[in-house]
Amino acid sequence: MSNFIRLIENELRKIFVQKSFIITLILLFIPIIVLGRWDYVEKESGAAKAENWRTELKIENKKIEEVLAGQNSSNLPAFAKEQKETYEINKYRLAHNISPIQQHTVLDFMKKGAVVTNFIGILLIYFASNMMSKEHQWKTINFLLVKPSTRRMIYYAKFLSLVILYFIFSFAIIIYSFIIGSALNGLNFSAQPVLQYVNNHVVEQGILPSLLNDYLINLLPYLFFVAVAYFLSTVLRTSSISLLISIVLLATSDVIATLLRTKSWSKFLPFMHTDLTVYTKGINIENGMRIEFSIAVLVIYILIFLVTAGEFFKKRDVAGQ
Known about the structure:
Helices cover 70% and strands 3% of the residues. It is mainly alpha-helical. It has a two-stranded antiparallel ribbon. A hairpin with a 2-residue loop joins strand 1 (194-198) and strand 2 (201-205).
């Protein structure tokens, strides 16, 4: 086990010394700065809105009532469902005096910064596409295999280093958001509860559990695409093709899911489960699936790609490379 941990540490050190890693950390800071600029503008112009939020919510709900009046309540279309959700949350805010106006605190800005985690998938795919192919390209694969470690240990240590990299990038975003949020709003950690419409009921969620959910909800879907990139990089020994295919799959997964949603067998495809955020609003009524099933499907496909490529790497002859 200690040897396996050393392998992971070695892989992380190899990542940390790459210029691409430093550039990545800088790139993650840029959108946080942009969000900080928007937050500052909203803070300057938000005083008037804060005074009239109850009136505005009442006007909005009256308009929604007119829209929903012509709908069949038992079979609402997607747009009407969103309107219904907004309507119920607005009612809850009015009844419990919970303002929808952004509070402009450190925790509030850190939650806003969680949107930057959407870039982590592309970054991890880049590192996964290069991780194994570069060993062949730089002719370091033979030196790596000379070490007293099995090929399986080397293979899985590289993948686990990618998992750790997700948390490193997420932690960097948290630190960046904390720094910018503190600079803009001071060390004010107060925050309104987060409201969600779950199973036809409005529920309150604390800001810290909500933050944790925002930063971790994409971990498993991204690991699926990382596993695809890692599989292709291992089998094809080329980074460009594995990078291209994986990013195309990441970009089109929602489209594929939409096109195949009506098929009864589609729920067994991984693309139907790459957006776990739908479950933050309760059961996915549209196809009857639950988050436990989606997690199981993603884990199975990740293991299939990992084990298949791992066995391929174990048996491959690299002596002549």
